From TrEMBL:
PANTHER family the record matches: COB--COM HETERODISULFIDE REDUCTASE SUBUNIT B 1
Protein name as catalogued: Heterodisulfide reductase subunit B
Gene3D superfamilies: 1.20.1050.140, 3.40.50.11810
Natural source organism: Thermanaeromonas toyohensis ToBE
Keywords linked to the UniProt accession: Oxidoreductase
Keyword Kinase: no
Length: 299
């Protein structure tokens, strides 16, 4: 099973642990990730706020490179996934747009192949049955708030792999890993994205609400599939706690990191020491890093 892999800018920078853990998990599952050579930024979110054609041409170039190899594209970042899907839909839907983009990027692109979120590949292509069979350190006792954010499953006609209001893909993955997904109402609320940087006075409130609701639902941690969501919920958590005078203490994980732990990998091999909210005390308290046979019995 081979996919063209589009990491996007964040996975080579602030979200390097997402890139690391995705590659570890893919190899373990037998998925070959062929990183698109000389890939370029997809334009999220600056391009589609300024120039419609640029916002389509940037991701289309990456898709054209994958199309040359006859490969579907796996995309870890929710924002990149959304932009690549938009470019694909535009090319498929209009011959005029297809010709315009071809002229801009200087190469042919017909919209062949599929663009899939890496979460979709893992759960719906590889399959939960195979993942369950490979789990060696189940996430027993770990209550996880699966947070999808606003770009992974919306707009539904574009993303087309889960319910836009109550998605379940990541929840089902958590169950397959032996953890417990919590039921909560904020799984697709916007985290404020880059607004937390440009208008911190406004942007911190959505982050606080998401974290508070996850904790109120009984979650021990939050799982995400978006580098910007991770950045806001992890890096800004200390600032949110100071601003709203409420202790939160919720570790944030990329879903690939939780997979890697359950598959038996060490935290350092997945990038967990890079987190701002240290997740290791939680994993140690739940004895998840120990082999199941050596865990203490609990009442």
């Amino acid at each position: 099973m081979k996919y063209a892999y589009y990491p996007g800018c964040s996975l080579h920078a602030t979200a390097v642990e997402y890139d690391t853990s995705a590659k570890v998990v893919a190899k373990h599952l037998g998925v070959e990730l062929w990183e698109i050579p000389e890939w370029n930024c997809c334009g999220a979110s600056a391009a589609h706020n300024t120039d419609h054609l640029l916002a389509l041409a940037l991701p289309a170039r990456n898709l054209a490179l994958a199309e040359r190899e006859g490969l579907d594209v796996a995309v870890p970042c929710a924002a990149c996934f959304n932009r690549l899907k938009a470019a694909q839909a535009a090319v498929r839907g209009s011959e005029e747009m297809r010709n315009t983009i071809k002229e801009i990027i200087g190469m042919d692109y017909q919209g062949q192949g599929e663009v899939r979120a890496f979460l979709d590949v893992v759960v719906n292509v590889v399959g939960l049955a195979k993942i369950r069979d490979l789990v060696t350190r189940p996430l027993t006792g770990l209550k996880v708030a699966a947070y999808y954010g606003c770009l992974l499953v919306r707009p539904p006609k574009l993303t087309a792999f889960d319910d836009p209001e109550d998605p379940q893909t990541m929840d089902r993955l958590v169950e397959a890993l032996g953890g417990t997904p919590v039921s909560w109402a904020f799984k697709t609320e916007c985290c404020s994205a880059s607004l937390a940087t440009s208008r911190t006075d406004i942007g911190l409130l959505p982050i606080f609400r998401i974290l508070r609701q996850a904790k109120a639902a009984g979650a021990d941690c939050v799982a995400v599939a978006c580098p910007l969501c991770f950045l806001n919920l992890d890096m800004r958590q200390a600032e949110v706690q100071r601003r709203f005078r409420e202790e939160l203490g919720l570790p944030i994980f990329y879903f690939t990191e939780l997979m890697g732990i359950a598959l038996g990998y060490a935290p350092r091999d997945l990038g967990l020491p890079k987190h701002f909210v240290n997740p290791l005390p939680l994993l140690e308290a739940k004895e998840i890093l120990r082999h199941p046979a050596t865990r203490r019995e609990t009442a």
